[in-house]
Amino acid sequence: MTKDYYDILGVERDATPEAIKKAYRRRAMRVHPDVAPDDADAAEKFKELSEAYEVLSDSNKRAVFDRGGDPMSGAGSAGFSGFGGGFSGGFDFTNLVDAMFGQAGGRGPRSRVRQGQDALVRVTLQLHEAVFGVTKPVKVATAVVCPKCSGKGGEPGSEPVTCSTCDGAGEVTAIQRSFLGDIRTTQACPTCRGYGTIIPQPCSECSGEGRVRTTRTLQVKIPAGVSTGIRIHLEAQGEVGPGGGPAGDLYVELSVADHETFRRDGDNLEMVVKLPMTAAALGTTVDVTTLEAEWEGSDPADRSVAVDIPAGTQSGTRIALKDRGVPKLRGGGRGELGVTVLVQTPTKLDDHQRDLLRQLAESRREDHPEAETAKHGKGVLGKLSEWFTS
């Protein structure tokens, strides 16, 4: 036997039936005489390819071939009795075309009702809204069910009628004759666009779409502790589908605006407090306004906090106040409120104040100090610099 059907189809000897079908379909689309009319050998190549597919797609014939026998002998020898005379015997030309182009037909009319798409809106929050949570009105421009036709697409009182072109099948079949036989192709009906029915009186409100665009306002609950980039998923609040189909989902993407006093760092809030040099040297207690002061639902007692400044506090010192930061989005508790001290050196002194400072410097032997160099690195001063430059 000179023919190797596996080689003709370009598959391995252990190829599955599905792999054989795909290989045949792929090669048939290249050598079919109607596709390659300029190839004088196209008909012979297609005949050989079809013979290989007939053998390898039939488990009995394939077994005979694998054992070294002639699968086309006996009852199967009439399978290709003259290519010009058409196919006969054990080979079904309809199955050949189905393998080549995929099974056509049988889909039936498609529904006018389809799933809607998801929608995305972006919302900017103030820092206190993101930290403590808020229920926020959000405007959404989406498609909703047409109020006039309730999604049916026709004027009230009218009903869809069966398409006369396809008799409700939603598809039509065209027959193309060739020397190989009749080739049938099926496509969506051009009259009804595959629906199988026609709406004789489309709704004047939605033009038969079953949905209209509008802007609606949703009350969206924002949980405490959210941050920029987080998306809130609202099921079935997106676009209503054609024909009044089920709505997609709505995603609300959050962005948190910068604050003039507080800076967020993960679950912590950071702020800077300016102190006179004398207060930092002697120590003091200062009242600091917290972020709760901007939240209507907060306890008035939490809207400020007393911060103890130890004597000798240096500029850049951070004092951490526990459970005064951002509520943790997953899990309980809150982060810290970090209060960074910025010691201010006086720039305007009268003669008396200048004499007092001079006396202090002399008593501390600092009237002629030696400069000390500092190593490079961020440290507290570097972080403090970042605060003002970021």
UniProtKB/TrEMBL annotation:
Residues the record lists as binding Zn(2+) 1: C146, C149, C203, C206
Renumbered residue ranges of the record's region Disordered: 362-390
Cofactor annotation: Zn(2+)
ZnF (CR-type) ranges: 133-215
Subcellular locations according to the entry: Cytoplasm
First-listed, main subcellular location of the protein, grouped into a coarse class: cytoplasm
Domain CR-type intervals: 133-215
Pfam family, one: DnaJ_C
CXXCXGXG motif repeat ranges per the UniProt record: 146-153, 163-170, 189-196, 203-210
CDD domains per the UniProt record, alphabetical: DnaJ, DnaJ_C, DnaJ_zf
Stretches assigned to the J domain: 4-69
InterPro entries xrefs: DnaJ, DnaJ_C, DnaJ_domain, DnaJ_domain_CS, HSP40/DnaJ_pept-bd, HSP_DnaJ_Cys-rich_dom, HSP_DnaJ_Cys-rich_dom_sf, J_dom_sf
Binding locations of Zn(2+) 2: C163, C166, C189, C192
Amino-acid biosynthesis listed as a keyword: no
Keywords associated with the record: Chaperone, Cytoplasm, DNA replication, Metal-binding, Repeat, Stress response, Zinc, Zinc-finger
Cofactor note: Binds 2 Zn(2+) ions per monomer.
SMART domains assigned: DnaJ
Entry's family note: Belongs to the DnaJ family.
HAMAP family: DnaJ (MF_01152)
Function according to Swiss-Prot or TrEMBL: Participates actively in the response to hyperosmotic and heat shock by preventing the aggregation of stress-denatured proteins and by disaggregating proteins, also in an autonomous, DnaK-independent fashion. Unfolded proteins bind initially to DnaJ; upon interaction with the DnaJ-bound protein, DnaK hydrolyzes its bound ATP, resulting in the formation of a stable complex. GrpE releases ADP from DnaK; ATP binding to DnaK triggers the release of the substrate protein, thus completing the reaction cycle.
Record note on domains: The J domain is necessary and sufficient to stimulate DnaK ATPase activity. Zinc center 1 plays an important role in the autonomous, DnaK-independent chaperone activity of DnaJ. Zinc center 2 is essential for interaction with DnaK and for DnaJ activity.
This protein's name: Chaperone protein DnaJ
Source organism of this protein record: Tessaracoccus lacteus
